[in-house]
Amino acid sequence: MEFQRLFQKDRFIFSSNLSMIMPKNLKRIKRQKQILNREEKIERLQLQELQTIKSLKKEISKDVGEHPLTRITRADIVRSVVGALIGTVGHFAFFYGVEIAEKISIFRASFLYIFSLIISFLFMYYSGFRKVKEIRIFRFIPLRVAVVYLISIVVVISTLFIFGFIDFSSGFIHVYKVTAATLLLAVLGASTADILGKRE
User: Fold this and answer.
1) DSSP annotation of 170
2) Residue 76 pLDDT more than 90?
3) Are 197 and 73 in contact (CB under 8 A)?
């Protein structure tokens, strides 16, 4: 009996203590649920923002992507060769270049080489490189102009050789002057083909 009485007394104390503890715990649990709900809401908002940032990043990377004129590919070289051939052979310009070469001095021939290089540079700059930032232009244009210019010289010499205007017995001065007289048209053709190929 004594045991039962003590047990009931302890049970009463325990239940009264439990009833006092329960409301505090319930409040605490409710607060924790509220905090968890807020945290979940914040996480959802952060995920939405992250998705928005990723989509903006993709759009910006598409807009800021590498300008097609900053790379030189095999297709660029082929276009330049075809353009130089059209510029040189299209109207038999090399035939008139041989006639003109007989009448010009080495100084004028040298001037034609420099003039052709300048024309190639200006043509490429005003046709396609103005869209590239000013600081970066001078990193890419010289290489592109040099490639187009050298291809033009090779095409002119090859064309003159194929048509028999120069051969292995031709003197350097003769080859130098004949190439100079025909080079401008080859450079214009190669530059045009290069620029038009990039517009595709």
Assistant:
1) S
2) no
3) no
First-to-last C-alpha distance (Å) of the chain: 102
Residue count of the chain = 200
> pLDDT confidence of 15, banded at 50, 70, 90?
low
The model carries a pTM of: 0.59
Residue 35 is encoded by which pair of tokens?
């905090």
Rg of the chain in Å (alpha carbons): 40
Tell the residue number behind the tokens 């103005």, with chain if given: 130
Other beta carbons less than 10 A from residue 151's beta carbon: 22
Backbone angles phi, psi at 77, to 5 degrees: -65, -45
Which alpha helices (DSSP H) does the chain contain, by range?
A: 2-64, 74-89, 93-103, 106-127, 134-162, 172-198
The DSSP 8-state label assigned to residue 91 in this structure reads: T
Query: Where in the chain are the domains?
Result: 1-65, 68-198
